[in-house]
Amino acid sequence: QDHVCSLPRVPFRGAPCSDAAGSQVPYATIMNQVNSSLSGLLWDEVQKAPFYEYKDSVGQFHQVWFDDPHSISLKAAYVKSRGLRGIGMWNGNSLDYSGEAVAEQQTQEMWQALTP
Question: What are the entry keywords (predicted)?
């Protein structure tokens, strides 16, 4: 409700929320899943990040947060405006390198977003 999803506190190396409570999903999976999700693509203005919600085959609700070219470009612009030394993204190998036209465009847009 109201797009609030709470994870149980699972202490892991001092972090309150981690892979012990959630898991990483490849960008290709996200792009395939977001359009058929319960919520469609949502945007959090505070985090400047997209997310969506879906229900799995056993009826469990899930919320997936991720970066896309828009959110990455906002972060890259922030870094540049503050004169910081650089930006990176976690696991670029999770992008879709299948060679399909749509996947190729999405992957190219993601890498281009890193340079404002």
Answer: Glycosidase, Hydrolase
